[in-house]
Amino acid sequence: MDDSFRTDVAVVGAGAAGLYAALVAAAEGASVALVSRSPLAQTASYWAQGGIAAALAEGDSPEQHAVDTLAAGRDIARASAVRVLCEEAPARVRDLQELGVQFDADRSGNLALGLEGGHSQRRVVHAGGAATGRRITRTLSALAATNERIEVLEPVAASALATDADGRCAGLTARRREGGPLVLSAGAVILATGGMAALWERTTNPRGAIGAGLSLATEAGALLADLEFMQFHPTALRLEGPRDGFLITEAVRGEGALLYDSKGERFVDELAPRDEVALAIHTELERSGEPAVWLDMRAVQVDRFPNIAAALAEVGLNPARDLLPVAPAAHYTMGGVATDLDGRSNVPGLYAIGESACTGLHGANRLASNSLAECLVFGRRAALAAAREPAASAEASLSPDPRAPEPPDEETRAALWRHAGLRRDAEGLGRLSDDPYPLARLIGAACLAREESRGAHQRTDHPDTEPELDHMHTLVGRDREPSFELWS
Fold first, then answer.
1. Helix, strand or coil for residue 117?
2. Of residues 83, 274, 381, 423, which has the active-site annotation?
3. What are the boundaries of each domain within the chain?
4. Would residue 274 show up in a list of annotated catalytic residues for this protein?
5. Is the dihedral of CA 460, 69, 114, 90 positive or negative?
């Protein structure tokens, strides 16, 4: 591999969003460099158990999907982003089918549509039950690896974004796992690096989900939005050992799984939006002092969720027989690099998609299975826009940066769990202002600025929702105090 080269579009991250964007840009005739820190098909998307939400059923509609998404977003979701997602998601599912992804079907050969929390209709498509992320990333990875317009760089970690004299993103520098630095000039850079849920001590995410793309973007001058809205998944396995935090998908509750407290009583509507269910569990755990509540999957066809059954078998649990100990864990980053509806950040030439981006789509609470749909819908839009950007400037000077960004330490993860967990207050959040990890400081600042409780952001010192903050998004950046902005 050369130490430097030039491409039309550089995509950083090879999850569902990055892979799909790379394929779309290549189909537009662009040369693409796909930069992946881990081998293809081993990204966070690979482990995604949720499906893709799309209005595909008779009697459903994009309008109803939008109503459900807006309701889950707690009057923060950006209406224009919601409209784009709900209108374009069905076509993106059909795109995947044409690319070779085989979704689960019923006995008549029609798509088997699942019901998940917050949805008023069965509209979630799965592939291999809870193995949807695995099926999609395997298919897209194989296509990317054999596409003559896509240069796959793995395992390579981006270390810095480069900007030219006009402030335009002109490429990036990276580090190979084995070997020296790499300099990549590009007409456009698309960040598809995933979220930051692993910054919290208890998480469903791989350890590498520490907001690397968000950190790169802020150093290049990009603004971040809505960092206070970290979604906590209600049903993460609660056990000592390596399977602690293993996600048990919401789809099992859509198929009849129930939640019980320590007295064996139901205490929450299992199909309420995630923020409600997670907060109800957290409240019950505070009341009882127990480490977990109990998920009952005994009425669910376990063979529909083979990867869950296999993971539970490793720790001696049988979901057809045993109640499962679960508790909330940090799961999904609803904030991210602030972008328009084509993935553009405020830095020209720099785009962000998927969980690393914030279009305002999810508001204060992501509707189940809208995230994979987001990867496809906004990944395509960003790829089309990036492919039209002017070629990389010959005058832009990129120098290899040998310094790898320092990862957060365990104290940072513990501090975020303690002070920016399911319930927060000003005293605890203020302590994050001194955290050594820059992104933790920005999270704390965003949480402090929003003096209300809404969706995934619950302030014990500001327990009410403030109507004047409806549809207002929190913007933060390097050397910039938090501010609110209305997005239409």
1. coil
2. 274
3. 4-227+334-387, 230-330, 413-486
4. yes
5. negative
Q: What is the DSSP string of 233-298?
A: EEEEE--SSTTTT-B--THHHHTT-EEE-TTS---S-TTS-HHHHHHHHHHHHHHH--S-EEEE-T
Written as tens digits, the pLDDT of the chain (488 aa) is 458 889 999 999 999 999 999 999 999 999 999 999 887 755 555 455 679 999 999 999 999 999 999 999 999 999 999 999 999 999 999 999 999 999 999 888 899 999 888 899 999 999 987 778 888 999 999 999 999 999 999 999 999 999 998 899 999 999 888 777 899 999 999 999 999 999 999 999 988 999 999 999 999 999 999 999 999 999 999 999 889 999 998 889 989 999 999 999 999 999 998 899 999 999 999 999 999 999 999 999 988 888 899 999 999 999 999 999 999 999 999 999 999 999 999 999 999 999 999 999 999 999 989 999 999 999 999 999 999 999 877 655 566 655 666 889 999 999 999 999 999 999 999 999 999 999 999 999 999 999 999 999 999 999 999 999 999 999 999 989 999 999 98
Judged by phi (left if over 0) then psi (alpha if -120 to 50, else beta), residue 241 lies in left
Tokens of 432: 């994050």
CATH number of 4-227+334-387: 3.50.50.60
Which fold is adopted by the domain 230-330? Flavocytochrome C3; Chain A, domain 1 (3.90.700)
Q: Which CATH code for domain 413-486?
A: 1.20.58.100
Q: Is 86 in contact with 341 (CB distance < 8 Å)?
A: no
